[in-house]
Every structure is written in C-alpha cells, then in structure tokens.
Amino acid sequence: MSVLIDVRQVSKQYSGGSKQQREALKDISFELKAGQVLGLLGHNGAGKSTLIKSLLGAHHYQGEISVLGLEPVTQRAKVMQHLAYISDVNVLPEWMTVQQLLRYTSGVHPSFDVSKANSVLEKTDIRLNSKIKSLSKGMKVQLHLAIVISTDTKVLILDEPTLGLDLVYRDTFYRHLLEWFHDGERALIIASHEVSEIEHLLTDVLILKHGQVVLQSDMDSLAQDYVVVETSDDHHAGIEALKPLSRERGLGSTRWLLHAAQIDQLDGINKIYNVKLADLFLALQKEAV
Does 147 share its domain with 257? Predict the structure, then answer.
C-alpha cells in the first residue's frame, strides 16, 4: 500500500503568557497508507485540532509532514486538490443554492465530477433549488460529503463530522462515506469523541493527551495487547499490584483493564473479555502522561 501521509517528529508550540511557550504537540510520528482508517482520539486540548491544522497546512510546525509527497504549508494549493476536510462547523456558502454550489465547485476544482455529485444527492432529501441556509445540519453535512466524494480526494479528514446529528443522518453519512472509501486507493482520518460510534470503522488508532501520544496501534493488535478480566472481590490485592489501567466495580466482582501479558500472573479470574476501544481510551485519559 502506498503511503499517503508521512508525519515525522512533528511538534507545535504556541505563545502563552509571560513569554512562555505552550507545547500543543510533541514529537508526533505516524504513517497513513491507502486503505487505512485512523481514529484520532483525545479530549479537548489533547492536540487533535493542532495536528489536523498542521496536516492541512494551516499553520507552521516543527518536524516533517508529507501529504502525497507534498509539504502542506508551502504546497498547500496542490495538497488541497487531493486532501479534503469536513468538520461539524458548516463552511458552505449559505447564500447559494445547492445547484449554484455544484456549478461553482465544478469551476474551481478540476477533478470535480458534477454528475457523481448529483447521483449522490439523489439518494438524499436535498433538492438542487434549495438554499443552503434552509438545509438542516444533517443535510449540510450530507451535501459537503457529496462534494468531497465527487472529487479526486485521496485523503479525507473528518473532525466530529456527525456531532449533533440524529441516528438516521449518521447512518446515511457513514454509508455514503464507506462506499466512497472502498472505491479507490484512499485513506481516512476520523477525529471524534464518539469512540463507540467509529470503532468498527477503524483500522488504526492514535490517542493523544496533552499533545503527546499515549497509544498508537492497529486495531488488531489492541485485541491481543489488552484484556478485561473479571475477578471476585477477594482477589483485589494481587491484581492491584499489577497497576491495572482501570477498574469497574460490580455486584460482588470487579472488572480490570490489563495488559494481556499480565494474565499469566493472576489466579482467580472468573471471566476474560475483549477490550473495547472506548474503555481503553477512558483509561489512558485518566493516566498520567
């Protein structure tokens, strides 16, 4: 698989009060290849938005970033021909009709396929003569996606794309997204707080906390590297000595999130469960970096 994004030791500092520098990113490195769906996770202030802006060439950074062989700041126009970004904030021109937006995009984007966009929109409730400002939030997100998947986009970055949408719009959004994704050599980055919603889509995950990586893995390895075990209440002392990532008390038993290699050191395990990404995410956010 070809490497579409290559990030090497990227850091970013912002000026704070009293001439202090706040480090928003510290030594972030990863590759994104065609066919991969990377979940970019972290609470507010973790560095997700700063990393996305770096990939989009929206600000300078330290380190190296290559997007399809291009540097995003100095070659931003070329980068944006093959990289697209959708967030929960509407960026479409409210005063245009849908038809006018399609014509405008066709004029400014050389690879835009207006017939494909119309085909996608036919599967929605969006009408070509509708003003964009009259569309619901869900319709605006659908319209934005229709435009993106009708261009020669190789990498799509989604930043909380379904925030505030109901289940019907979320389902439609991800269905159209996956149809586009599997129809070519493409890659996705999804930044979201809805970990459970996107977990089944991901091939890889990158979790940030205070600008640093606290977990970087493919999803298959997560199932091998971490487990949840259930013990009775009289086995707390032995398991606490292993410094579990988290624990959840129930009626007469406790569930512990552990590294899989630690299981051999335990007795009295009642049950073993596969770890969920949401549980791991919460546990790592609570840990000290």
Answer: no
208 neighbors 41 (Cβ within 8 angstroms):
yes
Same domain, 139 and 20: yes
Please give the order of strands across the beta sheet that includes 3-15. Answer: 21-33, 3-15, 62-67
- Residues sharing a CB contact under 8 Å with residue 240, sequence separation 6 or more, in sequence order: none
Amino acid code (one letter) for 188: L
Give the structural domain span for 39.
3-210
Q: How many domains does the chain have?
A: 2
d(CA 144, CA 178): 15
The list of the chain residues with pLDDT below 70 reads 1, 16-20, 233-237, 267-268, 270, 287-289
Residue type, 256: W
Q: Domain for residue 145, yes or no?
A: yes
CA distance 80 to 75: 9
For residue range 185-238, what is the model confidence (pLDDT) as tens digits? Answer: 899 999 988 898 899 999 999 999 999 999 999 999 988 899 888 877 666 667
What the block records as the tokens of 279 is 């549980």
Are 36 and 122 contained in the same domain? Answer: yes
> Quick one: residue 45, left, alpha or beta (phi over 0 = left, psi -120 to 50 = alpha)?
left
Question: Could you give the dihedral angle defined by the CA atoms of residues 135, 141, 143 and 147, in that order, rounded to the nearest 10 degrees?
Answer: 150
Per-residue pLDDT at 223: 83
Distance (Å, whole) CA 74 – CA 245? 42
CATH number for the domain spanning 239: value is 3.30.70
